[in-house]
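Weekly structure sync, notes
Attendees: PL (lead), two postdocs, one rotation student
Agenda item 3: pending single-chain targets
PL asked that the sequence for the first pending target be pasted directly into the notes so everyone works from the same version. It is reproduced below exactly as submitted, 165 residues in total.
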Amino acid sequence: MPVKAPDRHQWTLRFKNHKTTILLFATQNESFESIKERLLEAIKATGRSEINGMKVPAIADQIVFGVPIDSNDDSKGWIDLEIPELNGEDGKSSKKTNVLNSSPLGAGLKDGSVIAFKFRKEQSQDDDMDIDDTDWDVVMPTFEEAVADHEEDVEDEEDDDEEED
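Predicted structure, written out during the meeting:
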């Protein structure tokens, strides 16, 4: 996958699944369908066949995006980016793409936003692909974890320096 230099019209979006983070550049009005294709391409380019025990799908339509309920507090959980809409007179809801969730700008995202992703789980051959009903598996590092990791790195470097002397 060719590397592109960012420009002011591109946003950096952070895609999270468990502890995995994938950064992609996207324009504000790029469709989420296109972004899913590029995300799948990026995952496959790493040679991974699964992420946290979930098999990487063959097609991008099997990827589902989620956004934080509260962008300032990700511990409140995540919701599906596809907005349920009512279908006609029967009042049943279905997940359809509309203007509000067809692009990062339409979804109210901004440069640097975090988007969770998961894969649709496979059903039997008679059933269609279904979305995994489990919670979104997103692990965000805390400040304390980052400080602890940094302190471990510093200690390791000091130990290496002492061994060289």
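Discussion points:
- Confidence is low (pLDDT under 50) at residues 126-130.
- The first helix runs from residue 32 to 45.
Action: rotation student to compare against the earlier draft before next sync.
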